[in-house]
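Note on ligand handling. Small-molecule inputs were canonicalized before submission; formal charges were left as drawn, and no protonation-state enumeration was performed. Where a ligand contained multiple stereocentres, the stereochemistry in the source SMILES was retained. For zinc ion, this procedure yielded the string shown in the input block below.
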Amino acid sequence: MSAELTPHQLRVLRMVSQGLTHAQIAAELYVTPKGLTAAVNRIHAKLGAINAPHAVLLACQAGILDGRPRRHGDHAGYEAHRRRGEDPSKCEPCRLGERAHRQAMRNRNDPNQEAA
Ligand SMILES: [Zn+2]
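Structure output:
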């Protein structure tokens, strides 16, 4: 691999691995079909892949994708995004879960505040 995938490229690759079409991915990520094709080509170049199945296989072998279900919606899920090099604030369930976690921590540290 010549360089690490960006969070955007990781997201695209994960969606490709889940069987979404380029049209579905482009719509989901608010990018143009042309922009998505460019992102896919950069992913393939970085992984040394000749096509999408090859890219998914190489990413699995490299540990970039593992096919396991992801935990979302709480502090653990939020931290897992960071460990994967993703921006956790872009995941709505994890963003809200982390906010609730931080609020709970603040309440615990403040004896004047009722725990929620
Ligand atoms: Zn998440």
